[in-house]
Amino acid sequence: METETRVEGLELEEATVRSIHAAFASGTLTCVEVVEYYLGRIEAYDDQGPALNAILAVNPRALDTAREMDRLYEQEGIGGRPLHCIPVIVKDNYDTADMPTTGGSLGLAGSIPPDDAFVIRRLRDAGALLLAKSNLTELARGGTTVSSLGGQTRNPYDLERTPGGSSGGTGAAIAADFGVLGTGSDTGQSIRSPASAQSLVGIRPTRGLVSRDGVIPVSFTQDEVGPIVRTVEDAARMLQVFAGYDPADPITAFGAGRVPASYLDSLEPESLVGARIGLVLDLVGDEAIHEEVNAVLEESIRAMEEAGATVLRLRISGFDELTRDIALSDFEFKIAFNRYLTSLGPDAPVGSLEEFIDRGEFLPSFGPGLVHDQSVSDGLADPENTEAASGGGRSFGKPSCPRLPTTSSTPCCTRISVASWLESARSSSSATACSRTAPAFRRSRSPAASRLRRPLPPSGSPSGSSSSAPSGASPG
């Protein structure tokens, strides 16, 4: 299905903030026309055609908001709104007070937070138009973008491959031109993975630069939020809006005084002169399958060197050991998720991780990891957590499913109930882990889960995927 890509001479396909604002200034484009174009793209390519399945919900007030923005523009132009009428695809773990925030989970379907996330408030204040909420790996706990509420998102460049994750819904939406700007979150690789898989620009900000307040958490220590866009310039524009101190996320105090007047200033042609850029060779694949990617990497290195940068190739002694099993979500998820649920107030769909698990309204493959996290009594006080978080270098990991007592009469590969799992996890100190056979969790649909349109793949990833299916144990 084809959609119109031009409006009175402007090519809207892969438009940028700069080009849209230039068209507004010339009088050849309105905010309503911008929104109609992107809504048409979503209908043509997400709901139909290749059925990318990137979008969980479209903002029902998008066109009304666009009309208001057109009236405002007639009165005062762009004003102090650097993202005036720029359509944003929001990963559905960012709180939005006027739309559900579900984390892609049937267990949170219909949950409407009492207020916006810090970054969402910043976007609205900058004039951005929140167009839609995107699919993600359920609760951002993995890397292939599959959820009980949204199903499997497809990569627009190859429908048989995953779009990366956990922010793959945003990535697929931006790559397929469903919006101009997108938001992602990153605990392990969830902004950078979709960006690399779909020819996009993603930024995982330095810790303390951007507030995580109002984003469904995975790890206090390792969560970050940032942009996923098509150009470096637009990434800089979004980061400028995002960055700033937020008392609701005290870690942002470390960013005070470190935000430049404009990140766009660093995009000048001479900005790389004298820069020293490290290339960690331990992260570069040397097998034949990586040759094509490595060729692109070398081309990028040459471009940076030609622009005046020095690229230092280095290896880190003991790199594999130093970076093995460093996810702090093992210790932090239960506490962080429970605090988030409390922040939703009396209308929260569930009151705790334990209740969320008991209801079973999530992908079966995520059950083992969730139950394990529930079994952690006080992760923040765990000596192994504090040593790892402070850089002590200890490695730790999570079993692929809950630990069962060695004396348990339940065979390890038997499908057992959530209640049995919880009881076993509470009472066991054994390190025995069973296989990833999932229990028969309920999959009843609520009315709010209306966008679950196609069957979920049994393994949690699409047929032919180049990525392994998530166990639900690794954060995105």
Number of strands: 12
Percent strand: 5-15%
* Helical stretch tally: 14
Top-tier CATH class of the domain at 6-270: Alpha Beta
Widest β-sheet, arrangement of strands = 3-5-4-8-10-9
The CATH homologous superfamily of the domain at 6-270 is termed Amidase signature (AS) domain
Radius of gyration, whole Å: 23 Å
Class based on secondary structure composition and strand pairing: alpha/beta
Order of helices and strands: EEHHEHEHEEEHEHEEHEHEHHHHHH
The poorly predicted ranges are 392-473
- Give the helix level as a range of percent: 25-40%
Shape: globular
* Annotated CATH topology of the domain at 6-270: Amidase signature (AS) enzymes
List keywords for this structure.
476 residues, alpha/beta, Amidase signature (AS) enzymes, 30% helix, globular
Task: Chart the SSEs and their pairings.
Elements: E1 6-7, E2 10-11, H1 17-26, H2 31-47, E3 55-58, H3 62-76, E4 87-91, H4 118-125, E5 129-134, E6 146-147, E7 151-152, H5 168-175, E8 181-186, H6 192-197, E9 201-202, E10 224-229, H7 232-242, E11 276-280, H8 291-306, E12 310-314, H9 319-322, H10 329-343, H11 353-359, H12 367-375, H13 383-389, H14 418-427
Parallel strand pairs: 4-5, 4-8, 11-12
Antiparallel strand pairs: 1-2, 3-5, 6-7, 8-10, 9-10
Helix pairs in contact: 2-3, 12-14
